[in-house]
Structure formats: C-alpha cells, structure tokens
TrEMBL record:
NCBIfam families, alphabetized: mgtE
Protein name, UniProt field: Magnesium transporter MgtE
Gene: mgtE
Major site of localization recorded for this protein: membrane
Source species: Rhodococcoides kroppenstedtii
Membrane topology, record value: Multi-pass membrane protein
Subunit structure and binding partners: Homodimer.
Amino acid sequence: MTDSLDERITRSRTLLSDHDLAGLADLLSDLREHEVTRLLERLDADDRAVLFRLIEKDTALGVFESLDPPLRGELVDALRDDHVVALFEDLDPDDRVELLDELPASVARRLLSGLSDGERTLTAPMLGYPRGSVGRRMSPEYVRLRPDTTAAEALAAVRRDGRDAATVHVLPVADDTLVCTGSVTLGDVATAEPGVRVGDFVADAPTVTATTDAEVAARLCLEYRTAAVVVTDSERRVLGVLTVDTAARILEDAEDEDAARAGGSEPLRRPYLSTPVGTLVRSRVVWLLVLAVSAVLTVQVLEIFEDTLSAVVTLALFIPLLTGTGGNTGSQAATTVTRALAVGDVRTRDLGRVLFREVRVGASMGALLGALGFVVAGLVYDWHLGLVIGATLLAVCTIAAAVGGVMPLCAKAIGVDPAVFSTPFISTFCDATGLIVYFTIASAILDI
C-alpha cells in the first residue's frame, strides 16, 4: 500500500463507524507488523480492541509484544476472553511480568491462573523481586552449560534448547548447584574443537544479582558490550539473563522519564496520541502547582527590594536577562551531572570534586558574560550600571553552576530521582537567589 499512516487511520475509523469488519480485516492484512502496531497506537482503547481481534493470529503476538505495557494492559482489559489467555501464554516471562504490573490485581490473578504449569513456574519467582529490579526484567529462559560439557555437546544443547532461550549468544556456565563459574559465547563454542570442555575456555561473566536496580544492570550490559548479562542470586546461582535488547529498552524508558521530569512533568510511558487528556493533565498539573508556589519566592524578593527598584527604575530592565541566565546555567549543570550520574561517571562521594569543577566552569562563563554585559550596559546607560550587570552575571553564573551541579548528587544521596531537581526547581531557585545578588550588588555600587 502507498497510503500514509494518517490516511490508513482515517480509513480505519470510517470502516469502524460503518461496522465494516471485512474492510477492516482487508486493511490490516495489507499492513506489515510494525505498521499495525503504529496504527493501533493512534486509536482509542475501544477501537484498538476491535481491530486487534481482526489481526491474523501469526501477526497478533508480535503486535501485542510491540505495544507499550500500558496499552497492553488496556487491551487485555478490553478483550477479556480466551484469546487474551493464549496471548499471555505465548509472551516471554519478562514481558509477562511487565504486563502484569499494568493490570488490576483481579485480572492479573485470572491470567496467572490460566497459565500452563511450566510457564507459571517461570513467571511466579520473578514477581517476588522488587519493582524496578533486574529480577523482574530478566529472562529465566537460557541455555546453561556445565564446565565438563564438550563443545560438541554445547552445540547440541543450543540446537535443542536455543529456540526457547532469550539469547544463545551468551551461554552461562554453572555447576550442578547452578553456581555461576562464568560464561562462553556461541562463537567460542562453534570454533572450539568438538572434544574440548567448556571449562577450558570459560571466561569471567559480567553478573548482577536479581535485586540490582534494572537501570544499573542495563548500563552494565551496554558497558561490557555483551549480548547478555547473567543474573544470579546472592550466592551466585544462575537465575536468568538480561539481554541487550531488554537493557536498551530499560535505558530508553529511564531517559524518557528523566527528560519528562526535567521538563516539569511526569513520564507518559505510552504514545502521546493514545494518552487520555485526563492523564496528560495529571502528568503536568502537580508540577505546575509546585512551581507556582515556589515562584512566590521571586515575588517576595522583588517586594523586599521595592525601594531599590523605585530609586533606579532601569534595574528592572535587566531582571529577565539575569534570571534567565542564572536559570539556564543551573539547568545546564544539572543536566550534565544528572547524565554523568546515570552512566556512572560520578558518584555521590564525588560531591566535592563536582562542586569545585562547576564553580570554576560557572566563574569562567560568568566572567565572559559579565565582561560583555559591562561593556554593553556601560555604553548604553552608564558605567556604574554596567559594573552592576557585569558583577551580577559573574556571581549568578558561579552560584547557579555550583547549585545545579550539586543538587542531583544531593538528590541521589537521599534516594530521590536526580531529574526531579533539574530544570524546574533549579530555575526557580536561581531566579530568587539571582535577584538577591543583583539588588545587593546594585545597592553597594550605586549607593542606594
């Protein structure tokens, strides 16, 4: 088909309103799997359920797995039939657990009770790990090798069990008690002599415990550039693997969350056009209320220095410049340090080093901007006012960079998402402190 996605959506809505199910089935049969997924993401919950029933069975599972977890939850709630139970059975255990987190408890129990014994055995232990831990995102389906397994036997095991495994590119090696001794890659096994034992070329494997934060485990997987990280219990017994594609999805979700909170809202965790208006409002209004209340600080500062403003009205012209510069400087520092925290470049114990570095960065930028402000304000107005602007820019940039760099580390230390203290709060803080610095310097230099 050559129609655009928007045209297909329009056609599907027309067919839905006409109750033309045959036409809808024809429309879906002409689309590839990823196109069907994008189409469903743009529809409301009821229409999505109708179209999903018309998808061919071979395509339905792939489309279902491609949907964001909240959309899967809505779809399960809308369908409520044996078709859903069959889809749930066919999901990988980690996808199954992620879906259960989005469902009402009653629906989750019903789906779990409908699982086969084997799939329930794989899924139930994962639900016992804390939310946000890698234990809930790992796959318990993997090919395990023993140290005394030969290369030929290992290849046979991959051919026998690899179809159901999350990955065959990394093969955990463990003894009969499941204690991990390392891992081998499929390439290692395929290129080894058939009679060589796996234990002779096993390598140390990057491992994480099941209670490790999923984002930390995901970054470890990408840091080692490996197809999977082995997940163990506290006694190094193998429980499963975290694959690189799951790790990438975890980090993508984390970055979306950080970006949303840095912008003063909560992450949607679903496509924008399929998000109800009420959900959009709830994701933003709380932050707006918090920021509105915190902005009262700025008003209070202006009220305190009302006499200074009355004496030199020209000072009011530079308030947007100074507050904007301070807020932007603080936000830049906070964003940089938050990113460094996320990738493990800095730790909370590095607070002193970060503070010293950001003070130097802020002072350097403040000196450049201050010199420019001094010259421009001096030429346009007078040199005393230029000196006020220059000195304020130097002080504001230094303070804002220092505060912006330190706040994410403080947030991390007390267990709060560092992104929360990024743009919104730091901008408000820098506005208030910048005005205090501005009027203090003005009062001293202009003698008012």
